[in-house]
Specification:
alpha+beta; 28% helix
């Protein structure tokens, strides 16, 4: 599904909503508030606070790109208690299940992870409830900024804006104490709660990536040390209730750049995953985190693991909060297929890449589908 330039369906009639997160607290108005480009770039929470009851034109997808209903699906659930088991057969079975999930769908849910969910979701919700002036202190058009409040997906290049606001926090493990003082100071407990969550998330990532490397037959000592000093970025997302959810998306189809993404979400449905033919609505498993393979891991695995397209739908009655933690190697590290996987003449399927290459792409192009990952693939001669 390509995300194209602005398009307006002239046949679309504004739809009045029953009270929701978007318009319940808005002042009564006789007419739809106007929406300028400047206002839209302040974010969708700001638009909701202004009392809109229909989508501004820049949020409306072309008819061919609008989301159809997706079939709910439970994705594989990996039990970390079994992965930690001292029984070799039990651990081997869970390791094989995780390997199969990474190969087939590129997504799984993990339980018994020991991550505290409630406080993180609560402080995220309270941040997005702050006055616009407070949130706007952290707005920046610079996609490389370590702390950034923004809207849409890639707001400067998006032809059609997405129904999403976000707070990006760079929290690289080796420098976390240095960057936390630059994070928002409100709510008052945000820095403490989010830094504790970032550390716990990094520990879980290391446990998962160690198991992934083991499943691939890779001796992980060297790369694990690099990952300990690598990149970790938290994207704290808010998808407010939307006046006309059938006309837009919270996030367009995309894949993630890193090794693994660990997603904390509330119990509001919205995440959809492509299986190559259809969109599947991920049914959240109570208490689970969602884990997905990123572009870097697909390259590192030489295509064994799949970094797949996913997107976010919105709804008309409930706001949705999620926190995506993206983990990868240091930004200067060049990433290519692991040498262990190129033994016995196995051809390499991907060009080398690094974070700077990805950021250059992201800042210069609208993020359509998997264009970046496709640009790194090597076309092999047919046998």
């Amino acid at each position: 599904m390509a995300i194209l330039g602005p398009a307006v369906d002239s046949s679309r009639q504004p739809q009045q909503l029953k009270p929701s997160t978007c318009n319940a607290n808005a002042p009564a108005a006789a007419a739809q508030p106007s929406s300028s480009k400047e206002e839209e770039l302040k974010g969708v929470r700001h638009l909701c606070e202004r009392g809109i009851t229909a989508l501004p034109p820049r949020y409306i997808l072309p008819p061919s790109d609008r989301p159809a209903l997706a079939a709910p699906r439970g994705i594989p659930v990996i039990d970390l208690a079994r992965l930690r088991s001292t029984l070799p057969s039990e651990r081997a079975a869970e390791l094989a299940a995780m390997d199969a999930a990474c190969c087939d769908l590129g997504f799984f849910q993990v339980v018994n992870h020991r991550i505290q969910r409630g406080e993180m979701l609560d402080v995220a919700r309270r941040f997005f409830a702050l006055p616009q002036e407070e949130r706007a202190r952290h707005m920046s058009p610079d996609i490389r900024a370590a702390v950034r409040y923004g809207t849409s997906f890639n707001q400067l290049n998006d032809g059609v804006l997405c129904w999403r606001d976000f707070l990006k926090l760079l929290c690289n493990p080796a420098r976390l104490d240095e960057v936390v003082p630059s994070w928002p100071e409100n709510p008052a407990d945000l820095r403490d709660v989010m830094s504790l969550y970032a550390r716990a998330n990094q520990r879980l990532f290391r446990e998962l990536i160690s198991a992934v490397l083991e499943a691939m037959g890779i001796m992980g000592g060297g790369v694990l040390e690099e990952l300990d000093n690598g990149t970790q970025m938290m994207m704290v997302n808010c998808f407010p209730a939307c006046p006309e959810p059938e006309l837009t998306l919270g996030m367009p189809p995309h894949s993630d750049y890193g090794f693994l993404t660990l997603l904390l979400q509330d119990q509001v449905n919205g995440l959809e995953v492509s299986d190559g033919e259809d969109w599947l609505l991920v049914d959240p498993h109570p208490g689970a985190l969602v884990v997905n393979v990123g572009d870097h891991l697909e390259i590192f695995s030489n295509g064994r693991y799949k970094s797949v397209l996913h997107r976010v739908r919105v709804n008309s009655t409930q706001s949705r909060i999620s926190v995506a933690s993206l983990h990868s190697l240091p930004p200067e590290r060049v990433i290519g297929p692991a040498q262990e996987l190129l033994a016995n003449g196995t051809p390499r399927r991907y060009l080398d890449t690094d974070l700077a290459t990805f950021l250059d792409y992201l800042s210069s192009a609208e993020g359509k589908h998997k264009t970046f990952l496709q640009s790194r693939r090597i076309t092999l001669p047919s046998s």
